[in-house]
Amino acid sequence: MWSAATLLPLPVLVPLFAAGLTLALHRHPRAQRVIAVTALAVVVATAAVLVGLADRGPVVAVIGDWQVPVGIDLVADRLSALMLLVSGVVLLCVLLYSMAQGGADGSDDVEVVGDGDRATDAAGDADLAERRDVLPVAIFHPTFLVLAAGVANAFLAGDLFNLYVGFEILLAASYVLLTLGGTGDRIRAGSVYVVVALVSSVVFLMAVGLAYSATGTVNLAQLAERLPDVDPAVRLGIQLLLLLGFGIKAAIFPLSAWLPDSYPTAPAPVTAVFAGLLTKVGVYAVIRTQTLLFPAGGAGNGRVDEVLMVLALLTMLVGILGAVAQDDIKRLLSFTLVSHIGYMIFGVALAGSASTAAAIFYVVHHITVQTALFLVVGLIERRGGTTSLDRLGGLARVAPGLAILFFVPAMNLAGIPPLSGFLGKVGLLEAGVRNGSGLAWVLVAGSVLTSLLTLYALVKAWNKAFWQEAPPEVVASSARVPLGMALPAAALVGVGLALTVFAGPIYGYAQRAADSLTDGHTYQQAVRDDGGLPPGDDVAGADE
Amino acid sequence: MVVLDNVPSFALVLAVGVLFATGVYLLLERSLTRVLLGFVLVGNGANLALLVAGGRAGAAPILGAADPAVQISDPLAQAMVLTSIVITLALTAFVLAMAYRSWQLNGHDEVQDDDEDRRIARLAARNEAVWTDVDAAETGETLDEEAAEVHDDIEESLATSAPAASAAGEASAGAAGAAEGGDRP
Question: I want to staple A73 with a disulfide (CB 3.0 to 4.6 A). Which of A158, A191, A333, B48 is the partner?
């Protein structure tokens, strides 16, 4: 029997199975590639269908026919489906890019170990050549697919514990990808990243435990029903623990110091996918829990929103000031990444339908644009031999195509009209102005300032990398950007532009997603109908 | 105590507290191995907390096998703990491998300072400014001085109506700054 629910497990299961297959086939790189690309293409196709289906109402799948309070359910509402689609497209592009990179480096087995390593200490060169042969780099594809499965699981999870498992899957994969090759630099950056992520996971797990002990359930829909009856102090505790856990993953200001340090050391495709997706999964979790479990108007919620607003402001400003001070383009972009997380948190903190819609649209825009930028920086690194802005130059003349590829997403990120970044920001500012509180006005001013500073930072990068007089190495360099790498990057830039062209329908979709999120009952109703959740149960499991 | 009604025993709660306290202390250490031990302790503390959340212990939660008079213990919490134990195990293995790799590479497994820290420390040791003017680095004069020069050049050229001196490229960029830069010296 076919039903829409049959589709739901696919985005998680297909990459997982493919990961197993590619691991088994590690001696056959070509088969690995075919499997990996097919798996992600299936994810994209499924997500596209889900986006359509979810527009009619949330799709719920109950795994193994265990009824909801005991069993696991996967839920795709508009927000989940949209995030799934965007992440699928981004993952596919990055996969194609990394394959071309592996091919361009002349060996199938060294896949991604190429560039980043060459940029590290020259001392390691001989060592590196020797190590390349013994490196288990065939793990790149399986790990990447596991990451895809984790991301999909996190987006589709219908209960808090499954969300935790989704996070762990994607984080475990990300640890491996970040330390790929085990060079000194990556181990150094990796230790910080891993330890911070471990701590955030423990915090999240404690929140799950607390929620379970307070309400007797970890199902999101059921939690939403029971949490209002919980003692406000306990509820606030759960909310803050969740926010703390997700805040570390999403890199919200005081918890963001790990990000600009760890991301840039990874290979270009890995950095791109991390920057695009991982923090956004955290943002997704914040949006999901804040709107569903702690809806606006709930007791004590206003206070947390104000804290979130202040944090959003600090994230924006501190992040972008960090970016302005950087002279390495990868680090610069990592700081802008932190800074722009602030916009999304701003949208969540305003806690209205319009602001949530703007935040969702901004997340979609930012995933695409930030990933595209990092991919292009990978190309710049390949062409110019470095990512240090002081040693780059003249690329506009040497590689005009590259200049266009960088310029479009850079302006998009800075929010130049009429690009999608501008539309998202306008939506946020409008919501902020309509909110009208003093703090909201400060945030509106802060966002505009951040936007200007982003433009400044990116123009600085542009001037130095593309217009500055070309250093002799760049002119003499015969490195060419392989077409196989340029095409996926160009495709993502194109997706970013498509977001602008089709901004109307997409924004409309985000608006409908936000409406059902802030309304809250759609989600619960769907889980109750399809998941067999007993209507209006009042038995708290923990009391039994 | 009312609060402890659903809790298997106070000892477990106490154990969670102790595990967290010692774990956090170890997490703050510099050595990766100690951090790992800290994570194991904290992780087990969280697992234990999940178990505590499941409520009082009872009969084995097997359908049909349990005596209906005795309440069964909560299987859901146990399933979750099982999952998170597996996750903790996997991550422990990974961090161990990473600590070993760090020891292979550096002869120790200490978490090192990040790039920014090292950069600032280097600058501080040499007592240098964090940011140097690119222009000043090239020509030895600051942007203000350069702008003033261009300003003078322009005035001179206006006076003699001769074309502006050499630096035609920089002149356009410098002229904008000349207004403010030129007045100061």
Answer: A158
